[in-house]
Each structure stands twice: as structure tokens, then as C-alpha cells.
Amino acid sequence: LVALVNKFIGYLKQNTYCFPHSLRWIVSQMYKTLSCVDRLEVGEVRAMCTDLLLACFICPAVVNPEQYGIISDAPINEVARFNLMQVGRLLQQLAMTGSEEGDPRTKSSLGKFDKSCVAAFLDVVIGGRAV
After folding, report:
1. d(Cα 7, Cα 51) in Å, to the nearest integer?
2. I need a surface site. Which of 30, 32, 38, 94 has the fewest CB within 10 A?
3. Is residue 79 within 8 Å of 4, Cβ to Cβ?
4. How far, CA to CA in Å, does 107 sit from each of 39, 97, 110, 112?
């Protein structure tokens, strides 16, 4: 599972240019607008953008790839579906590691990943860094 998630994150970072430009623009504008609000800290704004991207777009496509047209000919059995759900859960936890304390039970598995792997992808999407 660790190798699978690391490979998936690597592909995300390598293919950021394929990420829909309209979605990148929306998330970038959301980040810029919310960053100007006095009551919100940058970490909170990043957490909102992260939640929007992962919970609403990336993780649903990972868990149900046939529904989003990613695959159409390969059936997904229960074991594969469970593994896809674990990948989505790990992606969300890795994205939120800097902003909040995670579940102590998952710290051992999160220790096998680069802490900034998903954050680097999010920085590119919100316009923090160039590819």
C-alpha cells in the first residue's frame, strides 16, 4: 500500500500540467481571496483548499474510477475497492499532516511517506510554486 500511494503521488506531481486549468484557477482564486480575510490563517485556508481538492475531486475519482471514466473495462473487486479507499484515506491524511494532529494509530503508516509529498502538489495547484 505504501508503494502504491508513493507511486500515485509521484504521478500526481509529474502530471500536474494535466490537472484541469479551470479547477486550478478556481482553487487558486479561492486561496487568494480567503488569504485576504483577517480572521483566517494561511493554514486554515490551505486546509480548506486541500479539503475541496481531495474530498470533492481526487479521492472520489480514486475510489470510483469507473464512475468518472478513468477505467471502463476492468472490473474492481471488493479487495481492490478496499485498497483504493485506503489510498484515498492516506492521501487525505498526508495532505492534512501539517495542519492538524492525525490519528495516533496511523502515525506509523504515515511515517513511511515524505511529509511534504501531497503538500508539494497542492502548492502547484494553488499557485505557490511552479512545476
Report:
1. 21
2. 38
3. no
4. 31, 10, 5, 9
pLDDT tens per residue, the chain (131 residues)?
A: 788 888 888 888 888 888 888 888 999 999 999 999 888 898 889 889 988 998 898 899 888 888 888 887 878 889 988 988 988 888 888 887 754 555 565 666 677 777 677 788 888 888 754 44
**Whether this model's pTM surpasses 0.70:** yes
How many other CB atoms are found less than 10 A from the CB of residue 90? Answer: 23
Expressed as residue numbers, the domain containing 71 is 1-127
Q: What is the DSSP letter of 130?
A: -
The shares of helix, strand and coil residues in the chain, as percent rounded to the nearest 5, are 65, 0, 35
- At 99, the amino acid letter reads S
Report the alpha-carbon distance of residue 78 to residue 75 in Å, rounded.
Answer: 10
The pLDDT tens digits of the residues spanning 109-123 come to: 677 777 677 788 888
Q: How many domains does the chain have?
A: 1
Question: Distance between CA atoms of 47 and 8, rounded to whole angstroms?
Answer: 21
